[in-house]
Hints:
This protein is α/β, with parallel strands linked by helices. Among the domains are: about 5-165, Rossmann fold; about 420-495, no CATH class; about 495-578. About 65% of the residues lie in helices and about 5% in strands. The chain has helices at about 15-20, 50-65, 75-85, 95-105, 150-165, 165-180, 185-195, 200-215, 215-230, 235-245, 250-265, 270-280, 285-300, 305-320, 330-350, 355-365, 370-385, 390-400, 405-415, 425-435, 440-450, 455-470, 475-490, 495-515, 520-540, 545, 555-575, and strands at about 5, 35-40, 45, 70, 110-115, 120-130, 135-140, 140-145. Strands 1, 2, 3, 4, 5, 6, 7 and 8 form an eight-stranded mixed β-sheet that branches. Helix 8 runs antiparallel to helix 9 (about 215-230). The longest helix has 23 residues, at about 495-515. The radius of gyration is 43 Å and the shape is elongated.
Amino acid sequence: MLFRLAFPRLGVALLAALLFLPALASAQQEVQGRFRVMIPDLFPGEDTGRGFGEDVAEELRDLINQLPTHEPVERNEIRDAMRQFDIDRDDLNCIRSRQLATQINAELVMCANYTEGRDDWSLADISFVSVASGETFTVDDFTVPDDDGDELAAAHIFQVFDGYIEQLRYAAICQEYFGSQQWANALQNCDQAIEGNPGSEGSRYARARAVMELGDREEGLAEMLRVLDLNPFNENALQFAGMLSAEFGMDEESLQYYSAYLELNPGNAAVRMNVAYELATAGNPRGAVTLIEAGIAMDDTNIDLWQQLGGFAFTAAGQAMEGQSEPTPEVEGFYRRAIEAYTRVFDARGAETTPAQLGNVINAYVQLGDPAAIDFAQRAVQVHPGAAALWSRLAEALRRNDRLEEAIAALESAKQADPDFPNLSARQGSWLLEADEVDEAVGFLKEAVERGEQPADMMANLLFGKAYNDGVQTTNWTYAISLLERTKSEFEVSENMSSQLNFWHGWSLYNHGLALQEPSTIDSARQSLPIFQQALRFFELGRAYAATVESINLAQILSATQTYVDIQDAIIRRGGGE
Length: 578
């Protein structure tokens, strides 16, 4: 009777490091030991004698003993162990065999069932199992004739096992290069391992990492998904699939993989926080918020989770705010969640909460226009009185709630906490200018220059902006003239800035002169003449600036101004005065 044999099928591959000697630095390194393979007598089916199973096992032990890489556990050793651990041979099955193999330091255990036909033997559920990992490769069910069936069965099983030796050697080298991060060599050997066994989970994962580390992130993701097809519970593949999906903007998929990963470690807060950090770093802080909130739902007393939630929620709010002029409902939701989270951290840890974290809370309140920012900031500076940044945040909150005097005082406290903190005097001066407290503002703007916060041109430009907006634009020429004169007298500015100030000073004088000369009387002429003359001087001093502004026709302006000088002079002469 002919064999009825199917082509051998490998299930989930054994870890190469468990099938072979420790991975070698070189493929040619000599083997220094042999792996122990426990082959118990095959398990007979109902109404089937034991003799065939005993004979097949013994034949297979002899065949495996020929291999340089593996050696069988002797039958007597197996039986001694069964007696030691009180295992009856009628109770021996694949699970108990694996347990027994652990006790006798066998790396692999072979299991098989058989039944007797009229003139043949049928073998089924044939597998070699890694004792350490539980990974298995299988041999397809087959049938052998009754005559010499034990030898034929053992030969077939050995042929299948021996046929994978070369492929698994590549798998071992693949894992070795993977472990030493020699990615190009790992890829080459993993490809050869997969060619012989496309269902090798370990080689697939190693290949996925290799192509990913070599720069092909897209193929790395595709290979990770192939690993998950083989084993949906491969934690490493789930984690990398989540990370790579996030890199490609596949936020929903990324969250799905990370969530599946965390289902395997639901109560491990450290793992959850690490995964959430990876997700946020890859560009999906919203997903990170979701993962951390799930952890808080399981344990809302874990302050580390609350702290991470606050950070991710702030990042998500900033991301959602991009391109928006005002906080959207989504942005507000993230800010509120961040505020809640860091408030919990502050309540629990007090001064251990960093000024940066507390500053973020104050800023969130300010962004939302919530006056609660003031109370929180006051509490924060009590805990960290030396944190200039917190005093600065408090000042901003006070100013936005129309408490300017207190805001200016808070910035003074920031100066005391850190004299080098940037732009404190400049902000004081700017805020006071906005409130029309010009005299006090000028003092702080000069102080900003003296403290090295800003160059003189920048502070002079703030005063010029005030003169232009509230004077020139509103045709309040006397106000513009007064503020421009003060700007020029208080600050030592560059030539360019001086030219700009002089031009607009001249322009303000010119327009002021136009208003004064309108009656065309001797008195109006006497009032306006020196103003036009002064305007001419400042226009000349403003030539460099005027030349940079296309809309300014300085020659025309000078001509008009000179005309008004001549007119006023003529009126005065006509009236008999010099």
